[in-house]
Amino acid sequence: MEILFLCLIVFLFLLAVFDLSVGVSNDAVNFLNSAMGSKAAPLKHIIIIASIGIFIGAAMSNGMMDIARHGIFRPEHFSFYDLLCIFMAVIVTDIILLDVFNTLGMPTSTTVSMVFELLGATFVVALLKMAGDTTGLGLSDLLNTEKALSVILGIFLSVAIAFIFGTIVQFISRIIFSFNYRKGLKWKIGIFGGVASTALIYFMLIKGIKDLSFMTPELKGWINDNTPLILTSCLVFFTLLMQLLHALKVNVLKVIVLMGTFSLAMAFSGNDLVNFIGVPLSGLSSYQDYVANGAGDPKTFMMGSLNLPANTPIYFLIGAGLIMVVSLATSKKARNVSKTEIGLSSRGTGEEMFGSSRIARRLVKWSLTLINWVKRVTPLKIRLWLNRRFDSDESITEQGAAFDLIRASVNLMLAGMLIALGTSLKLPLSTTFVTFMVAMGTSLSDRAWSRESAVFRITGVISVIGGWFITAGAAFIGAGILVFLMHLGGHWAIIVIAAAAIAILIRSNRRFRKKKAEEKEDILFQTILNTPEDTDIWDLFKTYVVDQQKQFMIYVSQSYTSITEAFIKENTGVLSRYDRSLEKEKDILKSIRRKETLCLRKLSKEKALEKNAWFHLSNNCCMSMLYNLRRINEMCKEHVENNFLPLPAQYAKDYESIVAQTTELFNDTTSTLDISDTDMVPILRSRCDDIKDQIAEIYHRLYDHLHDGDTSSMTVMYVYLNMLQETQELVSGLRKYLRAYAKLLNTGYRTKRRRVHNA
C-alpha cells in the first residue's frame, strides 16, 4: 500500500506539470497584453522579458500559498486518505477547467479556481465524515470558509474598482497627451515616466518581492517604515532618468511598458502561478509524515502536521519556473487568451469575437442617452476642446497595434498600483480581474468602443465576467463530484479519473490544433485590415471573398448529397447531425459576411460603389441556399423520426437523378471559383435552367400520378413535393449567385434574358 501511495504522489506531480502549463497559458494574458497590444517590442523580446520575470519570481519565492495546507480545511480532522483524494480532485478539476477556458480564449482567475476546488472537495469529504462520525464535529470544525468568502468579495471589488479607475485615469491621461502624444513631451514625459516607474516599483515592493527568499522580517520592516522615503526617492530618480532617456531619443513609453511587463510577470509567478505546486507539495508532505509515523491505516492517520509552515525546496521552485517559462514561450492557447482581451480593447475594427446580447443592447442604449444628455449640458467650447484631445485620426500607433503606448502604459501602471494598494490595505483584490477590467476601462475611456462595436465589446466583457463566476461554481461542483467518486471508489477510481483527465487534455489540444488549422484563412483577413489606406487591396479582397464562397459551395454540395441520401435510406443520425451543422454554418456565414464587409470598407470609394451591390447579392444568395438546405433537412428529419413510409422507389430514382445533376453542378461551380474563371458562368447558368426545367417536369408528372389515383402515402408525397420545390429554389439561388460572381470579378460581363419555366 505504501508503494501505491508513492505512485499516486508521483502521479500528482505529473498532473501538476500539466496544471502549471495550463495555468501560465491563462494567466499570461495579464502581463503580456499591454506589450503585445501596443507592439512595444517584437513578440520574441516581450516573451523573453516576461520569462525572466517569471523565472525570478518562481525561483526566489519563499514558499507556497498555505491555503493548500490549511487555508480551507482543518487538517487535524482529516486523514491521509481524505487529503489524498482532495488533492487529486483539485488537480484534475483544475487541469480540465483551465484548459476549457484556454481553448475558449477566456481569461479566468487561477486563484479563484484553486480556492473553490479545495472548498468543493473539502465540503464533500466533510459531509461524508459527518455522516459516519460520532464525535459530533460540525462544518465549522472541518472547514475554514473565510478565504472563499474573501475571494467572492474580491471579485466584486476588483471588477468595480479597476473599471472605474481605469476609465478615469485614461481619460485624464488622454487629455494631457492626446492621441498625438509626441507633441509637447519636453516636460510631460519625464513626470509621466517617473510616476509610472515609481508605481511599478511600489507594486514590486508590496506585491512582487515581499515573499521572496531574501526578504527577511527585518528588511520587510525597514521597507514598511521607510516606504514614503523610498517612493519619493524613486520618483525623483526616475523622473530625471526618463527625461534624460527622452533627450537621448529613447522611447520612454516603450521602456515603461516593458518594465511593467517584467514586474507583473514576476509578481504573478511569485504569488499566483507557483501556487499550483502547492497542492502536490502538500501531498508530498502528507506522504512523508504518513511514512515517518509507521505508514499505518491511511483512513485513520490524521494530518495535523500540515498546520506547520511550508518549507519548499529550491529545486521545486526552479523546476516550476522552468516549466512556466517553456509553457509561456510555446503555448498557442496563451496567445488565444490574449487575443480575447486585445480584441475587446482594440481601437480598430475587425472580427468581433462575441455576438450581441440583450443586456449589452440595453446598456448601449442607456449609455447613448446619457452621452446625449452630457453633450447638451456641456458648453460648446469644452466639447470642441475635448474632441480635439480625443481626435483618434492623429493616433500614433505601431503597425498592426491594437492601441497606442499611452494606453498600454496606463494599463500596466494602474494595474500595479491598484494591486499594490489593495494588498497593503489587505483588500482581497484579484490580480486577474484588476488587469482585465483596467484594460476594459481604459478602452472605454479612449473611445475604442464605437457605436458599431460597443454592443459586441460589452457582450464580451459580460461573458468574461460571467466566466469568472462560472469558474467558481464549476470548480466547486467538479471537485466535489470527483472527490466523492474517489473517496468511495478507492485508489482505482483515483487512477481512472486521473487517466481520464489526461485523455481529455490530449483530446482538447488536438481539437484546438484542428481549429487553428481551420482559421488559417484569417491571415489574409488580417492582412487586408492592416494594409495602409492608400494601397490597392482589390486583388486581396477578391481572393478572400471567392475563397470563402468556394468553401461554402463545397459545403452545400456535400450537405445536399448527404441529406437526400439519408432521407432515402431513413438515416436519422445523419439528418440530426446536419441539423446542428447547418445551424453552425449559418453563424459562420454571418461572421464571414461581417469580416468581408469590413474589408470592403478598405477599398477605394469608386471600387466599393462599383462592387458593393454584387458583393451583397452574392452573400444573400449564399444565405438563401443555406436556408433551402435547412428546410429540406427539417422536413426529412421530421418525416424519418416519425417512422413514416419511405419514398417509393420509382420517385427515389427520379430524385436521385436530380440530386446527381445538382451535385455535379455545384462541384463544377467550385472548380470555376477555384480558377476565378467567368467564361464558364453562362454555361453553368444554362445548366441551372435545365435542372429547373427537369424539376418542373417531374413536379407536373407527379401531380398527374396523384390525380390518376396513386396510392402512395400523402405524407411522403408532401415531403417529396417540398424537397423538389426547395431544390428548384436552391438551383435558382446558385444561378443568381453565378451572375453576381461574374459581375463582381468582371464589370464587362453580360447575360441574356431567358424565360424560366417554373412549376
UniProtKB/TrEMBL annotation:
User: By its UniProt entry, which Pfam families does this protein fall under?
Assistant: PHO4 (PF01384)
Q: Which InterPro entries match?
A: Phos_transporter (IPR001204)
**Per the annotation, which location comes first and is thus the protein's main one?**
membrane
Q: Which residues cross the membrane?
A: 47-68, 80-101, 148-177, 189-209, 229-248, 255-277, 312-330, 429-449, 461-484, 490-506
**Where is this chain's protein located in or outside the cell?**
Membrane
Q: Which UniProt keywords apply?
A: Membrane, Phosphate transport, Transmembrane, Transmembrane helix, Transport
Question: What membrane topology is annotated for this entry?
Answer: Multi-pass membrane protein
Q: Which PANTHER family match?
A: PHOSPHATE TRANSPORTER
Membership in a protein family: Belongs to the inorganic phosphate transporter (PiT) (TC 2.A.20) family.
Q: What is this protein called?
A: Phosphate transporter
